[in-house]
Amino acid sequence: xxxxxxxxxxxxxxxxxxxxxxxxxxxxxxxxxxxxxxxxxxxxxxxxxxxxxxxxxxxxxxxxxxxxxxxxxxxxxxxxxxxxxxxxxxxxxxxxxxxxxxxxxxxxxxxxxxxxxxxxxxxxxxxxxxxxxxxxxxxxxxxxxxxxxxxxxxxxxxxxxxxxxxxxxxxxxxxxxxxxxxxxxxxxxxxxxxxxxxxxxxxxxxxxxxxxxxxxxxxxxxxxxxxxxxxxxxxxxxxxxxxxxxxxxxxxxxxxxxxxxxxxxxxxxxxxxxxxxxxxxxxxxxxxxxxxxxxxxxxxxxxxxxxxxxxxxxxxxxxxx
Length: 321
Hints:
Helix content is 24%, strand content 31%.
């Protein structure tokens, strides 16, 4: 087998580049052909991820306008997610009844909100069988007239979508759109900043704009509209908060504190002198807030101090400054 200088099979890398370029103008049928190609071979997935993360690989192909014929294998049936939607996690999420707050707005009679209080997460099953796990303090806006469209107004949600080629499932967050291509993915809305991570299948970020394809193990951070940062994560860790396990690999303490605070429903502040320090760790959010926060403090070489209704992490136990 001929391998490219990047270490991937040369044919897979060439096809991945061709797909990346073709999808910029691809229609719905083309997207589904791409997903079939992606899932036919692990080498395809690895090569496409490499191309997506390194735009320099495209430079030699953009100048060529010759069409490339690519075989399209039949799609494989994906197994159900193993850990992310494990029975224990779903049972825990279903422990509290979902709160539905109807919007009494004359121009939007079919819209309604689902909110999670700081004390519990929520599990929602949509009419088409798609499932959403909403983390503590999260808020969704749904529409009975358009059940394949969800607005994540704030917080964190894990989606397991039932794919329908004729009716794409879209998540709108902070003015940006994420389109499902048959997958399980996690989304965070924190003001103008959003994060997307994929566990299975694929999602298309900004289908009418940047058209960034995310496959399993890829994560996207967008601090503001038009700004996109890509990174790798462990696919099995995506949505880990649904089962009380949060995994971080070379992540800033400030980012870890935000994620842990969402899952605990507890404000967690970090002193500026500590916030940008990066660590790797695994934390449990299902064993009590104090244990989780003190574990993070120990791993970060910091002190955890109660402060009002929350906590402060600092290097000296003082104020956040």
